Amino acid sequence: MADLTRLEGRLGYHFEEPELLRRALIHPSATGMRGVTQEDIAHARRLSWLGDSVLDMVVSHKLYSLFPTASKDDLHRWCVHLTNNKTLGRVALELDLENEMTVGPSVRQNLQAKDKHVMLAGALEAVLGSVFVDGGLQRVRAVVRRILAEEFRRLLEHAEESEA
Length: 164
Prior knowledge:
mainly alpha, Ribonuclease iii, N-terminal Endonuclease Domain, Chain A, about 75% helix, globular
């Protein structure tokens, strides 16, 4: 199994079950690679689905707390911005997820920039799903707030400038 301790450090979270993190980082293109099963790929997809839901909830709650007088439309727009593929792909690049993923050779060689962001965003969601399964809501909340701290800071600055 790959040593994912550096990634754990970047996330600020140590896994009790590191196998969850390893499986979260398996891309569907890895089908047929040594040690990768269909069950692994299905599990990664399920973790991504779960992570997407958890991410939306954590970001929505943070926005609700940060902006107590904001409209529903503003909160929704900001949430979409913070959780879209472009933002998540950029955060995943900063976390160096690409180098931790198990990806088929043809995908690794032929990824276009847009496709890479989509792939990395899905992987980040799967990682967040694995944190939630391993450590629960409080732990995944801390990870999301850590990895999106700069995005929240930018949003706060922009909101303050808009009010001035």
